[in-house]
Amino acid sequence: MTLQEFISGMPKAENHIHQDGATSPESALYLAERHGMTLPFSTPEEAAQRFQYRNLGDFIRMIDATNAVIQDEEDIAYLVTELGRDAATQNIRYREVMLSCDFHERTGISLDAQMRGFIQGREAAKTQFGVEFACIPELDRTSPPERNLSLVNRLEPWRKDANIVAVGLDSAEAGYPAHRHKEAFRRARELGYYLTAHAGEAYGPVSIWDSLDEAGCGRIDHGVRAVEDPELVNRLDHIFLTVCPLSNLALKVFPDMEHHSIKQLMDAGVPVSINSDDPPFFCGDLNENYEAVVRTFRLAKPELHALAKSAFTNSYAPQTMVNGWIQELDDYFSENDFIL
Ligand code: ADE
Ligand code: ZN
To answer: What does the pLDDT look like over 288-302, one tens digit per residue?
Structure first.
């Protein structure tokens, strides 16, 4: 079969996708109409033209303007259900979904309403599409530290039903170091959550060191600029990086895929997985991210197998579930082949 067919049929896990970053232009237009609001675009074609960025800041302005149409619990339930439908289409078995709790609170959706919406969507994803979701509430780097601490303290009642596994950190990286939110991370760790942070994307290695050593994160979202510091690459031998290749190109972290650092990181033994981040905003779903990497670096079948496996084994899912998915993945690799 072709590479595209192989990747499409391959059972997959995704460790890094944002709930609000997965809003398709069609869904945004539907919600805008429902709430009598306007968007920066009036058709999906116009959206595709507007989704061009010079940097992370440009993107954050666009995603925030688009997601202003998400107004209530029902909208979140609808979007999370759509995320389940999309996962099934791509043969994604398990997704770690990042939730922009602070953004939604700023636009008037209480944390409780967000969580009720997420839980409803998660259950629909499971029952209608057989897809498993975990939730990673994201702290906003640019928010006041006490606001993030308060968010961490309010998650507990929702932990089980939303399957909250970790606390993350995202938004503008330069000028907003992870250590500002040390207290929130300390509290999250005390409550037993895993800790992860977007770092080494719009800012360099110092931001990754800070997330590891000051904020105490055990995983890094992106981390692709680690290659600028060989000592840091050594430090990452047991730190999982959730890499988002097409996102990095869209936000000009690298000029093209040939210059992307993922292969260098893989060759150095750093555990990585492939992810889509905010797919409609970067015009690339999970399958397309895999395909771009395999084609550009002419990855051999065992390298693709290792990448796909890594997304399951380094995930926050329970070992028993991981074992089942790995069995399915290994069977798929032994029964199928692709030609590049
Ligand atoms: N929020 C959504 N996508 C993001 C990214 N790539 N970097 C930082 N914050 C984000
Ligand atoms: Zn992200």
So the answer is: 999 999 999 999 999
